[in-house]
């Protein structure tokens, strides 16, 4: 059957079904499915549609009437990690690390706007011309960002970032080629021994996924407090876990709750570790207070082009929230953070750890660092494929936390 004829039947059927549903009584999902199947098997359409076409249309009709229209199909595809909607007929998906244009389209701008309002209502949030930006979380844990006109000049823009249902682990990152086995053992060791770790990287480099993987190495008996703008972390192995999420002010008079508020609150909740999803501004002050006040083993992420660049950005963020000399700020960073892990998204769309650096301390007005591991490409690399591995560049200098945990030199070398 030609695509145009198929679409014509779908539109006509949807109109018929909606008219029948709009009769003043409530229909269950099962009743809606039964009505769709009854129409598809009726005399008017049965001869025009094959078995496969009927199944596909039944699914599409139900999604458009009771689900999120064509988004439902994308959300049910576990291999899709990102969905980008730039208007009703320009949809892109990320699958297998690559962006692809998607064949589907919303039947109209109005239908896309209806789906956006459906998403907002499901999150108990509002998005409109007066408040045209929405950051929220879907029921399945996916993160959704919506921008409406007049801010979005070419019509509504929707971005949905999805996360794997099974928790990411360091072993899985080895399988994906993001780290090697030696690096996995090292990272598990420093997490268990409560080194404070900061993860940097660009947009889409996998910072949250990596933070999830690191968090799986935390002993399950420890009390963990997570602080996020939009809850994305999936600490499936944690038994004593409290997850905190920010809140924006709204028309009903709810006061905003910021990352800074939540970090301050978390300090009073008897945490063993505090994990902050991402720092973007002056909340770095509270984060470093946590790092420097006995909450060892805490972790966070931020946007930076290199590990060194991330340290410079931290200085800038701290200057936004503290009226103190630069030397004092650098001293606070150096005393609070033990390790920097920098991630990158390569030209072949794979994500890799590019550097692990140790913060040695503060000396002569500067934060001193040492690279422990660095990713190096090898001769097998091509324009289409990146080949290489993390090469060990140095030994960990500050081993006090390892010694406190009873890990000797032999254990350090074996990742024990």
Quick summary:
With 416 residues, this protein is of the alpha/beta class. The chain contains 15 helices and 15 strands.
Describe the structure.
It contains 15 helices and 15 strands. It is α/β, with parallel strands linked by helices and 416 residues long. It has 3 domains: 1-66, no CATH class; 69-162, Beta-Lactamase (2-Layer Sandwich); 170-413, P-loop containing nucleotide triphosphate hydrolases (Rossmann fold), CATH 3.40.50. The strands form 2 sheets. Strands 9-8-10-11-7-12-13-14-15 form a 9-stranded mixed beta sheet, with helices on both faces. A hairpin with a 5-residue loop joins β4 (133-137) and β5 (143-147). The chain is elongated and about 85 Å long.
Write the layout of secondary structure elements.
Blueprint: H1 3-21, H2 29-40, H3 43-46, H4 51-66, H5 71-75, E1 80-86, E2 91-95, E3 98-101, H6 109-122, E4 133-137, E5 143-147, E6 157-161, H7 170-176, H8 181-192, E7 197-201, H9 207-215, E8 223-228, E9 240-245, H10 259-266, E10 273-276, H11 284-291, E11 299-303, H12 307-321, H13 326-336, E12 339-345, E13 351-363, E14 366-377, E15 388-392, H14 400-404, H15 409-413
Helix pairs in contact: 1-4, 2-4, 7-8, 11-13, 12-13
CATH homologous superfamily descriptor of the largest domain: P-loop containing nucleotide triphosphate hydrolases
Poorly predicted spans? none
Described by strand count, sense and barrel closure, the largest sheet is: 9 strands, mixed
Number of helices: 15
Overall tally of structural domains: 3
Number of strands: 15
How does the overall form come out from the CA principal axes? elongated
CATH architecture label name of the largest domain: 3-Layer(aba) Sandwich
